[in-house]
Write a structure and sequence with these properties.
The chain is α+β, with helices and mostly antiparallel strands. The chain has two helices and five strands; from the N terminus they run H-E-E-E-H-E-E.
Amino acid sequence: MLSKHKQLLKEKGELYLRIKARPGAAKTAVREITDDETVKMDIAAPPVKGKANKELVEFLAKNFAVSKNNVKIISGAASRTKLIKIINNS
């Protein structure tokens, strides 16, 4: 589902994603991508002490094949709607 975004990251070297997170789900997965390119996701961690954010960063790093250090939450760390920046150093 994120193949278009993976291609953009490869071409441009960086990518910004708007994420609408739903923490406390059974497993971490992309639910849908809306018409305005918002990525709706289930997060398999509770929204407590940054656990959901950590899970989100790990999921995105794995899916985009980058280091966790290359996935930054730009805004919305305490919100369900987040702006994420992913950098591809390779």
